[in-house]
Design goal:
six-stranded antiparallel sheet; Beta-Lactamase; alpha+beta; elongated; disordered N terminus; five-stranded antiparallel sheet
Length: 640
């Protein structure tokens, strides 16, 4: 028989034939009115049977009534039995005592004694039946309570979250729950055929057997230890094992109760904690950091672990007075004020100051937080201290370098500014002074042409080339002047409506060449904080560029709008004109550099260089995307 099997409810009181069922009858399971009705019917039926079997004068009037009372007591209990008895007495005296069908009695003395002894006898019989039924009820309740306790014990045993088993002293299993089997991966049948030594880790077997011997010898009654099992799959399972010895009434050993709890995760967590502590200690050593706790009642600092060695401290416990004495005189007031503020307001304690634990002063970064009681008083604190001497020395060195570097930068900046101003002035002067010789050359060329009508065609072509070269030279000079102007003066930022400026300029370009059909579109609401004249020049260069390079494109289109990429907003001027090769884009914004031949598109190569200088002066960026024959897109920002 399986020792863990639980009896079924139907097996609680096994049937014992009709006598057993009769003895087990429970009147309380039936309603009172039904039991009373049955008593009346049985009593009437018994009376009728008595009258049918023999005349009233034949004696034995109470025989069937006695039987009816006993049956009613068995069926309905003591009160129902007594009801049948009283009703039977009335019917006997009414129907079987002269004069018949009357309650008058001819011999009262005889009737009194007969009825008295009948009532007494029936009371004893019915009472005995009632006592038997009460005894049966109590017995059944006790049996059910015992069975319920047994079921609960078996349920607790079988469904416990911990492994449980009963074993003999030699290690044979009496019973085991499923949790224990699942713990080491065995089925119940396999487990029952296995000795516990077979799945115990060899290194833990000796300690377990030693403790078991102490239990059997009576030295101890129970023991608990952590040990390892070998799972059926080969992995190690850590368990907390508890063994208790149960004894017989005479004190001799009976069997053992085994309780095991899986602590593999706890052991793994403990190992991880030890590893973390070791790594923390190593990290503190590498970082030059120590951890501390503060006892407000004792006013005592204690360095945790062995982190005092990370800082080379002379000990692990310091009073707050001693710490203040070791503080640099220039830092004491600041330390005292910060500490008091943290204690009073609960603010985080975070300060850098100098301490001396040996011959030299060291800089430390000290941080801490405090815990308080219900009254708001500080009870303790915890924090860290980090040696930052090297960092402070480096900061001091950097500060000195920055001071000298700033001085040199100012000197170099002034020199560069002076050189730049001189170069700008020189460029402006050169460009301005070259205009007069060019006018003279152009004027003499025109005078030669007008004063010598007999010049040959070749001579006139030479004069025309002189005039065109001087004109182009003048345009180059104008470009140099424009570039110089873009770098001079200060920016005057104010709100500028780029949409309005672009719309007006595109209308002017359309009016200058009414024969061209260009589909242009400007997004509304393009606003920026910028210098209005410079923005005017910027859009004029970009839009003139787009208008020029769409001159040979059928269905020309120009778009001015806003482009957003990766959260950044850029203004864009796009066209579907000639475009250019991005491989040559490095020359795009250089002055007087062109990506197309002069016979394709006219120009000096100064517009995009001017546009880029305007954008840079606003602190923005100008970039381009294009492909030959697919137009170009110029993106720019104007940082405020």
């Amino acid at each position: 028989m399986n020792p863990t099997a639980r009896p079924a409810p139907d097996e609680a009181l096994p049937p014992q034939g009709w006598l057993g069922r009769l003895a087990d009858w429970q009147p309380q399971r039936h309603p009172w009115w039904l039991r009373a009705a049955v008593a009346v019917v049985l009593t009437v039926l018994a009376t009728w049977m008595r009258m049918a079997l023999a005349p009233a004068e034949s004696g034995g009037r109470f025989v069937t009534i006695t039987l009816a009372g006993a049956v009613c007591a068995l069926y309905g209990g003591f009160r129902v039995g007594m009801l049948s008895t009283v009703l039977g007495m009335l019917m006997v005296n009414y129907l079987m005592v002269k004069p018949y069908f009357s309650l008058a009695i001819s011999d009262p003395r005889e009737a009194l004694w007969l009825n008295f002894w009948f009532l007494l006898t029936q009371t004893v019989v019915v009472g005995s039946i009632g006592l038997m039924q009460r005894h049966n009820r109590l017995l059944r309740a006790s049996i059910e309570l015992a069975q319920q306790s047994q079921r609960q014990m078996l349920d607790n045993f079988e469904h416990s979250a911990t492994g449980m088993a009963h074993t003999t002293l030699d290690g044979r299993w009496l019973r085991v729950n499923q949790t224990y089997c699942d713990l080491i991966g065995y089925t119940r049948d396999e487990f029952m055929r296995t000795h516990w030594r077979e799945f115990t880790h060899p290194d833990d077997l000796g300690l377990d057997q030693a403790n078991l011997a102490r239990v059997i010898s009576g030295e101890i009654d129970t023991y608990t230890l952590e040990k390892r099992y070998i799972h059926r799959e080969g992995r190690v399972v850590w368990v907390l094992l508890s063994i208790s010895l149960m004894r017989k009434p005479d004190g001799s050993p009976d069997y053992e109760i085994v309780v095991v709890q899986d602590i593999t995760r706890r052991k793994a967590a403990e190992q991880a904690l030890r590893t973390s502590e070791r790594l923390l200690w190593q990290a503190q050593q590498l970082a030059g950091m120590a951890s501390w706790v503060y006892d407000a009642r004792e006013r005592l600092f204690t360095v945790l672990g062995e982190s005092d060695r990370a800082l080379g401290l002379p000990g692990t416990r310091f009073s707050d007075v001693e710490m203040l004495e070791r503080t640099h005189p220039d830092d004491r007031d600041r330390v005292r004020h910060r500490w008091a503020a943290a204690i009073r307001t609960g603010a985080r304690y975070d300060i850098e100051y100098r301490l001396r634990f040996g011959e030299d002063w060291h800089w430390y970064l000290v941080r801490g937080e405090f815990e308080r009681d219900a009254q708001g008083r500080v009870t303790n604190g915890i924090g860290t201290v980090l040696d930052i001497t090297q960092r402070k020395l480096a900061e001091l060195h950097i500060t000195e370098l920055n001071a000298s570097l700033e001085s040199r930068i100012q000197e170099r900046t002034q020199a560069l500014r002076a050189a730049y101003d001189e170069l700008e002035s020189y460029s402006y002067a050169v460009a301005h002074d070259l205009r007069s010789p060019l006018r003279i050359i152009n004027g003499f060329a025109q005078a030669l042409d007008e004063d010598n009508p007999a010049l040959s065609d070749d001579s006139r072509k030479h004069l025309e080339r002189i005039r065109e070269a001087s004109k182009k030279m003048g345009e180059l000079i104008d470009g140099l002047l424009k570039l110089a102007q873009m770098a001079r003066g200060e920016l005057q930022r104010e709100p500028v409506d780029l949409s309005a400026v672009a719309t007006r300029q595109l209308r002017e370009l359309a009016a200058s060449e009414p024969e061209r059909k260009v589909d242009w579109h400007v997004e509304p609401g393009l606003l920026a904080m910028a210098d209005p004249p410079l923005v005017e020049a910027l859009l004029q260069n970009l839009l003139h560029n787009a208008w020029k390079y769409t001159g040979c494109t059928p269905h020309a289109r120009i778009h001015v709008g806003l482009h957003t990429a990766d959260g950044a907003r850029e203004f864009v001027v796009a066209d579907n004109g000639a475009g250019f090769d991005m491989a040559r884009a490095d020359k795009l914004f250089q002055p007087f550099q062109r990506l197309h031949m002069p016979h394709e598109f006219k120009g000096l190569g100064i517009g995009l260089a001017t546009a880029r200088r305007i954008v840079l002066r606003h602190g923005g960026e100008l970039r381009a995307e294009a492909a030959p024959g697919q137009g170009a897109r110029f993106y720019f920002t104007l940082s405020s």
